[in-house]
Structures are given as C-alpha cells and as structure tokens.
Amino acid sequence: MGPPRCICEICSCGRHRCCHRPTRIYDDGAKPSHKTEYVENYPGYGNICPPESCKPKAEVQEDKARMDGTTTFKSDYLPYEIVTRPFRQQEEYRPKSGKIDLGTIYQRDYNPHKVGPVILARPRERKHTSDAKVDTVPTYRDHYRLWKSQRTESCKVERDYEPPSERFGNPSTFQDDYMPKQPNPPQSCKPCDSKLPEGPFDGNTIHRTAYVVHELGPLFVRPREEYKPSDQPFEDLTTHQRDFKGMPGEQAKSCKPESQKHGSDDPFKGTTEFQDRYQPYLVTAPEFHKPREYVPPTDKMDLKSSNRLDYIKHKVAPRAPVKPAPGRRSTGPFQGKTTTKEDYQPWKVCPRGPIKKEEEIQKPTGKFASLTTFRSHYIPHQANPPQSCKPVEVVPPGVPFKDETLYRTEYTPKKPEVCPGLNPDAVGYVYVSTDSEGHRFYRRLSPEPPGSDCSPVPEEVPAVS
After folding, report:
1. How many angstroms separate the CA atoms of 8 and 465, rounded?
2. Sign of CA dihedral 112, 116, 117, 121
3. Three-class DSSP category at 17
4. Within 10 A of 427 (CB to CB), how many other CB atoms are there?
5. Which of these, 10, 414, 443, 452, has the minimum number of CB atoms within 10 Å of its CB?
6. Distance (Å, rounded) from C-alpha 198 to C-alpha 373?
7. Three-state DSSP class for 352?
8. Residues of the chain falling short of pLDDT 50
9. Cβ neighbours of residue 418 under 8 Å, at least 6 residues apart?
10. What pLDDT digit, counting tens, does each position of 336-349 carry?
11. What is the DSSP letter of 442?
12. Angle at CA 331, nearest 5°, toward 328 and 334?
C-alpha cells in the first residue's frame, strides 16, 4: 500500500487539478481525525464484496444483419370483422286523446285577498310663518367698541431733488478694457485664374488606343430534347382508391323525428289572469296649493339703510402726494450733450482693398501643351498571356480510382482510455483527506475477484477535487 496521492498526481491527461486555496496561514500541521463513535463501535459482518453493477456496458453494436421492417404492432395485430352497429328504432309519435288540463299549482293554491291603497308613512309638511318684523341686533354691532386714538405721524424726512452740478466722469468697463487691434485679414484659398487650352479636346485614352478587338465564336446552344409520350395508359388510381375497399351494408337512416304540428286549431284567447282578476282602486286627485294674490303696498318705501343711519362722517384733510413738485421750466435751448457724444470720436473708415500675395511660381507665358505627366513618362509594354496553372492529365479517365490511403491501411483501432482524475471513485479510489492548500488525497483499493470471500484491502491514494 503506497502513500496517498492527490488529483494532480493521479491525472494522466494533464487536464485535472486540485482546487488550491489562496493561503495556508491557519494550518497548524496537525492532521484531522476522522474517527467517529459509529466507526469505533460498528461491528463488521464478515468479508462481503460489493454487489456487481447491473448497468450495461457502453459498447458499440456492430451491424449484424439487415434491419427488418416489421414492428411489434404489425406482428401482433389481429384484424377483426367489422359489424354494423345496431340502433334502436324510434317509435312513431301518436298524440294523446282528450282535452289538455291547463290548470297550474298557482291557480289551485292561490287565495285572493282584498288589498286597499297604501297609507303614506311620511307626515304632512307644516310651514311655520309669521308676519311680525324681526328686531335684532347683530353680534358685531353689539360687541364692537370704537377706540379713541390719535393718528401716528410719519417719520420720513422730505428732501427736495437737487441735480448734480459736476459732470459725470466715470468711464465704462468697455472703455477701460477695450484695446484696438490691427485687422488681420484671412488668407484667401481661391485658386489662380488659369487659361483653358485652345483647340479641340483630345479624348483618346489608353483603353481606346491599346484595345485589340477579338472575334467571338458562335455561341453553343444545347439542343432541346423532343418529348416522347408514354405508350402505357395513364393510371389515375390514388393510394386511397387503391387501398380502400368499402364494406357492404345498408344506408344509415336518419334519427331526426318527423316535423309534426303540435297544438290545437282553436283561436287564441287573449285574456290573462291579470285582466280577469284586476280590481281598480279609487284614487283621489292630489291637492295643489293655491298661492295668495299679490297686493302691492300703499305706503311709501323707506330707502334708509343701516349704513346710512349709523355712518358718522369725519373731517379728514387729503393726503399729501409723495411725488416731488415740478421745478421751473427753463426757456433756453436744450443741451443735448451726453457722455457718448463727447468721448466718442468717429474713425475715418476706408474700404479695405484686396490683399494680394506675391506669387512664388511664375505663370507660364507660352502656349499650353496638353501633354500630361502620365503621357510623357508612359512606356508601352507588350502584354504576355498568363500561364495556365491547370495540371496535365496524368491518369487516363478509363482506369478505376484507387481510394486506398496510408491511414486506411495502417490504422489500428485502440480502446479509449478514461483519465482516472475525472472520477477517482469509479476507478477504485477512496477519499482520505484534504490539506490546507486544497489538495484532496485518495487511496487506491485492490479489489479481489467476485468469487473470493476476502474483502478488498484499501490502498491509500490522493483524493480527487
């Protein structure tokens, strides 16, 4: 039995690793004890091997023979004889003889009662009116007492407006901060006026001069195949007509009853129970209140109101206006001088002329030659046709193609191996412990064949994370 190993050591493919922890500062070096009261006191029951798994092995089944198209339904299906469903014949309707009794339970058990008009439970309206004059004093007039107080004098000192005798000499912010600058006109991007070349335009291009016209051969037209009708007659049978065979039997009869007239030919009596047993009640006409005739008063109307009788007039002088009294108007000429007129000096502005720069490149004086740089430096070359990259046919078309390759002839199938680090418990490993760095240690078991009675001896192997 070797030392325990972790998943990093068990893995054979290099893809499985233990989940490492970031630090091990809390590791005291002592190994944890996994002994419990159940492990110490649990008695063993002989050497018992684990049961074998009933799960089938995942093996690829080879194609042994051709698949049969018969199914369980086809093999076990037994056709039954179809018999028409018996139906009950409906009896013919025969109306009953005699007269119909139209009496109801309501007519038999109803006892009529004499009902009188409903007495109103609402009392009659009573109006309490009186012709006496109301002589009352309002609460405000009864409780209000006039205070004897003098009017407070104003503490405002009245001052007459005096215009300033000196000139206002404070310059504005614009006059203090403004500094005149010399105008710098922007540079003109307008191109120089150049003369167009004289004479007709030469429209010859390289394509027109170097183009070689090739003759095209006749276009290949595929001949159309002639239609040849079939000699055999057209079979217009469908799958339904071919496979369906109607079963012999009688035509189904309708279960709908015949339409017969229900009722009698006697004329309809329009009388109802309400018309027969209705008793009219005597209702008196409602009483309408007749208003009294208006009699205009004969005495003269007193137009004196409480405000006119109780108002006390006080002698109060009119309030003096706060607006200053208008000064004397001067008869001399109006002085229209202002700060702007005295300090502002009009500038002599002249129209700005065009700014011209001295031309660095002198204009040509001779006649314009319509020869471009491309035309002057172009060297015509003879065009060589491109070389074809199509391979030469080495194998004749009549020889059959050999599809044997080195991979097909020398390939040896191998059984895929499963990495033990993926699932150590299924391969025969038992979990032991986990250290502070995250490594899970397992031990390997050496199971004996199923025929032996000995229990497997565990071998310690590192655990899988």
Report:
1. 9
2. negative
3. coil
4. 17
5. 414
6. 19
7. coil
8. 448-465
9. 427
10. 777 777 777 777 77
11. E
12. 105
